[in-house]
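Exercise 7.
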Amino acid sequence: MSNIFVTIGKVIAPGKAELERIHYSPDRLSEEEKAEGFLIEGIPDPERIEGKTAMRYIHPDTLEIFYEYVDTPPTEEEILKRDIEQLKQQLSAEQASKADLQNQIITMQETINFLLGI
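Solution. The predicted structure, written as tokens, is:
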């Protein structure tokens, strides 16, 4: 595995900083650029977790790369699918309510007809 050049960005908390720059060909950097960062052996791959986004960080003292996982906002398509499903459920409930009301009307009409002797 070849070395990767990184620079540390904003420190967010003790032991946690943003990676400001990642360069996979550090041999192409000038000595001035190399003086601004560090060489590390590699960057681990994040886990793939459904509904989560991996946020990559570095420990500024140990140069260990790690990930934190945050909820991924739903896409427009996911929002539309959810809304359509909710509307289908509402429609189904309304149709059941309508059928129940129709049955009540028929029962009431039959009762009225009976009472009137029709």
